[in-house]
Amino acid sequence: MSFSSQSLHNNSRGTGKVDKSSSMDFAPHGQPLRAGTHLFDRVPIELLQEIFLHCLSPSPPAAAEFLYHSIDLQGTSPRFAPLLLCQICRLWRQAAISFRDIWTSLDIFVSVGKSRPSTHLATIWLARSGALPLSLSLHQQSGSVGDCIAAGQILELYKRHTSRWCNIHFDLRERWPKYCRLLTSQQRSAPLLREFTIQTSYQIEVVDLFGIFDFVPRLSSLHVSQIPDLNLLGHCSVPIPWFQLASLSLDYIPSVCASLHILEKCPNLMDVSFKVEPIIIYGPLPIHPVHHKLHSLTINISHDQLSLFLGHVTFPELIRTTIYVRGPLQNYGWPQAKLEAFLERSQCRLEHFEIHDTGMNCDEFTACVCDRHLQSLVKFIVGDRRDWTWNPFVTDHTVDLLTCSSPDNNNVPGGGLAKTGSSACFLPNLVSLVIRGSILCTAEGMVARMVESRWRYYCNGIKRLKHVEFKVPTLHAEDVRRLKEFCSEGLELDMNLQ
Questions:
Q1: Which one, of 207, 113, 125, lies nearest residue 158 by Cα?
Q2: Contact yes or no for 161/126 (Cβ under 8 A)
Q3: Is residue 168 assigned to a domain?
Q4: Residue 82: is the preceding peptide bond cis (ω within 30°)?
Q5: DSSP letter string over 195-207?
Q6: How confident is the model at residue 7 (pLDDT cuts 50, 70, 90)?
Q7: Which tens digit of pLDDT belongs to each residue from 57-98?
Q8: Which of 97, 154, 308, 340 is most buried, by CB atoms within 10 Å?
Q9: Which residue segment(s) compose the domain that 76 sits in?
């Protein structure tokens, strides 16, 4: 049984009570209830409280741009549970206030010098949670003086409960909150902390908050803009429990050497996201290439340091890879040879391969599509925001390699390729293909032909294409018409015209 908080709001509108449907007004033994009573009056409070758990809104996305426009969706509005539950009737209010589980999650948004909910309400909210573990978030919209003061007050309130922190998300990138006091000795540990996320541009002010890492035996997920004093060997003044981390995201790493040393210290990592500084700073490399059991890697790095990184790692269990390349345009160059050597050495079976702003050429892209270690791909994303600076590299030849030559030929599985007559259809497991930017340059009808061969006439041994995203020239009327036709048949299509 589940009830939405919105339905409770609708039922209670105007009367302050839940609608009493006559068809449901029967006591447990089949006798009609007396006028003025309701079925919920007979429900045990424990069951009522269990129902309340299903009324809570799901946690909002962590993206700040979503929260800025969706304050009511954070669960802190009187129109949504748990606050709504306190307004139905006296019984429900008593059941809600005494049920600590529905007060353990609090998302606070600071804007125009005010926090929503207010500091006073947030204090009451946390008091109702008793001694249970807390999931807390704080999002500061701007760096104005008013927002900094309001965010500082909330942060001070949160710091009183560090012993109960479980899942923490602080988005304070604009400017560090004002009037934040230093952590006390009692606050310098978080024994229940499992996930810690903090986004800020201010390294000095955040140092003291990292004092909770003196004792975080359960921490497994760490996502931060920057770790104070992180050096080229991956050492820092903060006692990060590297060994116990399963998920790690760092928006600042001084060099690729530091990223390699960090991987060495985190043998249990499954998911990692690194942003490596493009400044050429080389430190001492690990004695041996880093062999790691990573499942997911996201890296934002310059092209030359990407080459260094790929040449010193082996990830045999890697499933998902996302690469963002950046740096001066005159120095761009995609390290295709290093990528191929990495894949050969790792022998991993990638399912998700995503590359952005690579600056690669036609031959390099074709080599990616044809690489035998990438034939396990289920999703392939290629995106370029700076495509105007170089020639398109997704051409007729590569699109032809992705096209099933004939729906009538039987495919012969083997070597990761599906054979269709005399030609080969590469990436046979592909379900989603995304090409963003003006990097697609093909003859009229080539794109539609490729999609049709994998959507309508997909052959034995080739997965059916389900989702595509392209930027198609407006003059390619045939491509546009046919792609829209496939969309009407059920293909998920995102198409931009250029």
A1: 125
A2: yes
A3: yes
A4: yes
A5: EEEEE-S-HHHHT
A6: very low
A7: 666 544 444 444 444 434 466 667 687 777 778 888 887 787
A8: 154
A9: 1-98
In a domain, 17, yes or no: yes
Both 134 and 93 in a single domain?
Answer: no
Q: Which of 74, 98, 122 is the last residue of a domain?
A: 98
> Across the chain, what does the average pLDDT equal?
80
Name the band, by pLDDT with cuts 50, 70 and 90, for residue 273.
Answer: very high
Q: Comparing C-alpha atoms, which of 169, 170, 210 is closest to residue 190? A: 210
Separation CA 222–CA 180 (nearest Å): 22
Q: Work out the number of other CB atoms within 10 angstroms of the CB of residue 360.
A: 25
Q: How far apart are alpha carbons 324 and 301 in whole angstroms? A: 6
In order, the DSSP letters of 347-413 are: ----SEEEEES----HHHHHHHHH-GGGTT-SEEEEE-S-GGGS---B-HHHHHHTS-S-TTSPP-E
C-alpha to C-alpha distance for 41 and 38, rounded to whole angstroms: 5
126 and 180 part of one domain: yes
Place of tokens 């139905």: 88
432 forms bridges with which residues in the sheet? Answer: 379, 467
For residue 258, being part of any structural domain is answered with no
Q: How many domains does the chain have?
A: 2
Residues 115 and 209 in one domain: yes
Structure token digits, residue 168: 């923490």
* Residues in CB range of 218: below 8 A, 6 or more apart: 191, 192, 193, 194
CB contact at 8 A, 305 and 312 = no
Does 91 lie in the same domain as 191? no
What one-character-per-residue DSSP string does 236-263 give? Answer: -SS---GGG-SEEEEEEES-HHHHHHHH
